[in-house]
Amino acid sequence: MPEAVVQQSEANGPPAAGHRERLARAALTRVFEPGDERGGRWIREVGPVELIRRLTSGDGSAQLLKGMTATKLGGCRLRASGADPGRDLADVAAIGGRFVCPGDPEWPTQLDDLGDARPVGLWVRGIPDLRLWALRSVAVVGARACTPYGAHMAAALGAGLAERGWVVVSGAAFGVDAAAHRGALAAGGATVAVLACGVDVAYPRGHTELIGRIVEQGLVVGELAPSEHPTRSRFVMRNRVIAALTRGTVVVEAEYRSGSLVTARGAQRLGRHTMGVPGPATSGLSSGVHELLRGEGTLVTDASEVAELVGSMGDLAPVRRGPVLPRDRLSAVTARVLDALPYKGGTSVLDVARAAGTGADETRGRLYELHSLGFVERDGAAWRLAVRPAPRAGDGLP
Questions:
Q1: Which of 103, 166, 169, 347 lies 20 to 30 Å (CA to CA) from residue 12?
Q2: What are the tens digits of pLDDT across the range 230-279?
Q3: What is the pLDDT of residues 72-105, one digit of tens each?
Q4: Boundaries of every domain in the chain
């Protein structure tokens, strides 16, 4: 039991306060489900060491906790009695992992925005510093059963963000999550997988190789103790960590009832940027994204637009415009003279000047300019539109 571990440590000499708290928090990851606000409030009020002592002792002090019921106490004590934080810490260390607590230098303080629902602690695998990586991170989430379009967009976003120095965060699920991770990995970039199970559990099993690559090139993070398996509620609560950890969330394909929209709405509540990639109006997989965009979500189509929204001043996306046509390069007056020529047949300089509202001499000069560019032809005293097509952009144009 956790209290026994603490007593054993004290028998070997007075432990550091950080060590006692780490043991207690590690034990509490087996006691409370992710996002348990009552548990979070008790940790805040009495501290993790005192809380685990109350839950494992029979002195009745646990019943004094505000909001503690007999049912809740029975469940907590049952779980606490089977917790062995020393073994959990050793097991994670054996696979190159660690347990990060609030107050540690590696703790991402933006998770504190979750209040009492913040994680008790985070189990982490991978070499990089989680706090530093989270400072410049974006979540890319979406449908598991995504379309080829959704997978393409997620991979392109993952690669594009990675190339711009952003960390791509997702949940390692099938579909959009996996495509975003793979896009970042393929670009030689940074990616973080937030799991709804223990960090030593490859879930889904089909992503064993992918999660292994993320451990080598990035980070795998989870709230649950080693060997814990996912449940429906754990997937939902995992999403709040993704939302809080990152500076913004991009949703790529999501139905009306989608866990990805839970992440997006969580990001909105926390004041984070919320973005969506549009899809066909007839696609049910894009219906949730479009609903998000009708609200406070921002429409994005590529990594540069995401970076412009969540990045620092100066991270601007390129200006979007269609192809530049030869006519676009004409001055306003020259274009007006060109528009004054009839569609069929020729006309005089005076008639063109009258239609364009310009002087005769200026009109004549503009017509010769248009003639040199291939827009018009002269037939004696008459001017007409050129029969042959005008040149392409760049062919002799200024």
A1: 103
A2: 999 999 999 999 999 999 999 999 998 888 999 999 999 999 999 999 99
A3: 999 999 999 999 999 999 999 999 999 999 999 9
A4: 2-88, 109-310, 326-385
Question: What number does CATH give the domain 326-385?
Answer: 1.10.10.10
Confidence (pTM): 0.79
Q: Using alpha carbons only, what angle is made at residue 370 by residues 364 and 374, rounded to the nearest 5 degrees? A: 140
